[in-house]
Each structure stands twice: as C-alpha cells, then as structure tokens.
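Practice problem: DNA-directed RNA polymerase subunit
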Amino acid sequence: MPPMPPLKPASTAATAYSTCYPETEVSRVSFHLMSGDDHAKASNCTIVSKDLFSNDRPIDQGIYSLSMGTTSYSFRCKTCQNMRDRCPGHFGAVQLRYPVVNALFRGEVLRWLRRVCHGCGAALGKTSSSAKAAYPKEPIFLLRRDAATGEERRLFNDEIERIFDRVDSQVSYHPSALLLRTVPAVPNNARPDVRKLKSSTRSNNNDTTTFIKNVVSTNEMVPLLLTEEDKAAHEPALNLLEITHSNMVRDPAGTATSSRIVGSNGQALTSLGARLRGKEGRIRGNLEGKRFQHGARSVICGDNNIDIDEVGIPISVAKVLQVPMVVREYNIDEAMTYFSNKSCAYPGCSKLVKGDTGATYHIASMKDGIALEFGDTLYRDLVDGDEVAMNRAPSLLYSAISGHRVRVLGNGDTFRLSVNVADTLYGGDFDGDAMSAYLPHSIVARNECGLLSNLKRWFISLKDRSPAMGVYHDNSIGMAELTRSHVPSSRARGACCGGEPTNSRAC
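Answer key — structure tokens:
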C-alpha cells in the first residue's frame, strides 16, 4: 500500500477562526440588567460638554462627538473610521455626580427597599412598609418613615445606593444595578444633526439630543462632593436630573404632567420608549414593516387587448409610482420632457436629487433657476415599457411574482391582465381579486425583473413540461369557428393566422 500523502496545513483564516472561536456547546444563556459600569465599558466616548459644534465641527466629548458616529459626509467617525453611509453608530456615556434610578425598574427599587434591612442589607422575614412612593402613579421620589417617630422624610438616591451596597453580593442579580451613575447616550445616527438647505442654521434638535443636553447641563449644577447639608440647597437640581433622565427613557405613567419635560415650542419631548412602541414606532413601523412609495394595489380584470407579458396600469397610479432616472447624454432629451412637464402634466416628475451635492428638490415647490445636469437623479412617472413585478397573495405557485411590461391606460382604476395568465400563473379570477404591483428601482433590479422574473420563463410548466398558459374564451371560440368543415380557407388566410402577412389584400 502506498504511503498516504501528508496533510496540508490549514489556512491562516481557518486557523485564526478556530483559535478565536473554539468549537463548543452553549449550555445556558443568562440575562442581567446593565449597570452603570456596564454602560461605561460599552461606551466609546464620555460626554462632558453640553455644546454641539464649534466652527461647524462637532466638539470632542460633546453632544455630537465624532466618537459616537458621524451624520455628515464631511467628517469620518473616530471609532470605526468610516463615513456616514457605513458608520453603524457607537454609544457614548454621561458620568453623573448623583445616581439616578433606572426609569424602567422604579417599582423594583421600591420592592427591594421593602424587603431588605436598611441598616445591614439582610433580607427581612416579611415585607416592611417603611418605604413608599411619593406619587403612587409615578414613583419618582421615595419616602422613608421613621419607626420611632412615624415621621416621613425624603429618601435620596445616594442613600438608596448605600443601602443596596450592603446587600449580599451572592444574590442572582444585585440591586445596585438599579441605580446608575453612568447613563448611556445613544449614537448620533439615531439622532442626526439636520441642517436647513443652503443655510448655516439648523432646524430644531432631535428630542433625544435635547434630553442628553439637559442631562449634561443639569449634572453640572450638582456639586462634585455632595454633603448631607448641601442636599436641601441642591434638591431642585437633583429632582430635575432625576426627572430629565426618567423622561428620556420613558414617558410619565398615566396622565401625569407635573414631571414631563417640554421643549422650546411648549410640546412634550418624545422619549426613547415612545419611539419604539406603537404602530408608528421603530419596531412595527420600520423593522417589521414599513410604508413605501414604489408599490400599488388594485382589483384585476381581463382585457383581450393586453399582451400576455403586459399589465395595464391606470394613469392615476402611473403618476404616483416614481422611477429614478439618472440623467446621461443619451437620455437628456427624454429627461427634459419629464422635467418640463413637472408634476402638472403626464408624463412628469416629482423629485430631483442633485448629483454633485445630494440636495433633494421637490418639483412642486422648487424655485426657478435650478437646471437639469448630467449625474442628477430625476424621479419620473411610470411610462409604457417599464418593468413591474405583479403578485397575487397567497403566493402558492412559483409564478406568483412575475415581471410584466407596463401599458399605461387612460381610463379606469383597475389593473388589466390577459385572460391567459390570470388563472394559470396567479390562480386568480375576475370576481373581485386584487393584485399588487411592485416597481424595481435600481437598473439591476429592473433587468432581473424583465429577464429573470418575466412570465415568459413560466410558459412551460416546471411540473410536467406542458404549456402553462392555455387558450381561453375568444381564442378558443375563434379556433373552433375557423376550423369548422364548412368554413372555406385559403393558403394565404392560413399564413395570415400564423404570422404577419406580406400582402394584406390576399387575406
């Protein structure tokens, strides 16, 4: 037996992967609250200044520090060294001189205070009633009753911090994580700086940016060394710091308005929790689904004048669906037609994006003097010959999403399809079924829709290799009538039926 060849050494990439990520099994997953130390470790910048910009440049360790990401193409991110389109954003942190209660777990703080001894931190045999919330619906401040005199006084957060520090560290999660001396600052990408077009002034700041700025400015009002004698004098600043952080994380519970932070316009600022929840929130409104302007839906009906690979689109829909068109030398004349019609006549356009500056102009409100140049992107109306993807739910067949050529119709409000494809490819009929039309935006997507997804590819069934589109209605009746035995037919007439005749008079 010949000797076996020596094994080839593993590649450098594979060796590095096996070294950094050894093969193992995950036995358990644990969850815990992020404490102030965890927020400090996860941050890339400590915010110490309440200012935003200096000479149109973000201030280091300011509200828009470049260590937390960039929202302008003029600067690179200091953390990942990427520009705006590739920077994912990075968290920052604000070091507080006075601890604040985690706004999501105020009720948990109150339960811990009722279940541990305030002197030694040991667990009590029964729940104590010495601590209670100042406002039951919104427990911002906590009160403590003296057991001897029955007098109630304010329980400050630094006192709660000392009580929780006495709790045994062997518990599953330590209550000290419920108080924060380091609060996170969300990345700049989540609260971008917005400038007015062709102006050095800025629009109103994002509400989260205003909250962070208020936290930093209020934190500066608190002395570095806070003694028991100074608490009474600085109690308004301590209350404002607590309320500002609480409002930044979540809205006050119920209808409480006494502890709500308002902006310069007199309206309440939007918290991070309000940006996430609800139908218009980040999760349901942007991640699980979103609104878009390149799709349409309507009832379908048959039309014998529509080719098999065409779809009839009403002109009212064609004016809404906008196709991005980059202006080049070979299409400047066509683009000028759309640009001259604007949004008043069909075919027109709705938006212009300048290629050199990236500025966006809405045609309806655009001022005179803006010219169309090479490299600009013009959003024009849908015209004949454009490609759209048609879909009928439920998508049970491989052909449930197929590409069609557009034919714009001057009247009607329904999508028109050839009778030959509605039943066989989409499983639909004309008793009220509705279909959706999706407009591909990029050139690559349009080519894929016209070549790879076009319904011509489904003419032969993938199941049994038989024709997928049959003959219906007028076609079937016409063939039956033409092939009757008593109907005379010449060779020239047969040629007319098979293709374009060379001599129309012979038919």
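Discussion: Residues 5-18, 135-139 have pLDDT under 50 and may be disordered. Students who identified this feature from the tokens alone can consider the problem solved.
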